Write a sequence for this structure.
């Protein structure tokens, strides 16, 4: 995110915040994980491939790509449906969409039941899940107590804009008791930015 907590422009168009040092870190982290998860908003706005770039790691092992897509809106030409790595679409029982060769699992009626989906992933031997975004997905994982750690790279820039998306969006905390408490475990300078690492308190 930017120094003022934004992750995109006021138009919601993606802009580069990570520097080269952070990009290398992200790809090394992806390579260590069993799966990478993003929401449908990230797919529609950024069309990420969610794979590991060879220039950042010695041995590439692309993890399972997971898309949280309650209404089955993932376009068939999305990069995440390429044959570069396996893909799992998590959707609802009310969605009848299929996505080519991608695996589909259905949890919940109108909205994906996150707890059930995470249990399903655990049964699939997914032990290290990297949730990359977007803002609504990150808030949902934090709110439901499904996150152990939070790693935030803060770039040296200001984006501004009251409508600019932030790192954690969604409905937010309704009261002081709903605020997510964190414990800062490490801070590391990466180029002209800083990586903040937190443990999520239960």
């Amino acid at each position: 995110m930017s120094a003022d907590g934004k992750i995109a422009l006021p138009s919601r168009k993606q802009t580069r915040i990570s520097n080269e040092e952070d990009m290398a870190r992200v790809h090394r982290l992806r390579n260590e994980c069993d799966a990478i998860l993003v929401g449908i908003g990230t797919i529609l706005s950024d069309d990420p491939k969610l794979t590991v770039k060879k220039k950042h790691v010695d041995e590439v092992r692309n993890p399972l790509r997971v898309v949280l897509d309650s209404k089955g809106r993932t376009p068939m030409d999305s990069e995440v449906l390429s044959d570069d790595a396996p893909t799992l679409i998590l959707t609802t029982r009310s969605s009848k969409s299929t996505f080519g060769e991608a695996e589909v699992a259905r949890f919940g009626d109108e909205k994906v039941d996150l707890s059930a989906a995470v249990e399903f992933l655990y049964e699939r031997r997914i032990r290290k899940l990297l949730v990359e975004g977007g803002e609504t997905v990150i808030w949902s994982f934090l709110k439901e107590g499904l996150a152990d750690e939070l790693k935030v790279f803060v770039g040296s820039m200001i984006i501004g804009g009251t409508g600019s998306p932030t790192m954690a969006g969604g409905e937010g905390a309704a009261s002081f008791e709903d605020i997510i408490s964190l414990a800062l475990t490490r801070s590391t300078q990466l180029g002209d930015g800083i990586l903040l690492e937190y443990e999520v308190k239960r």
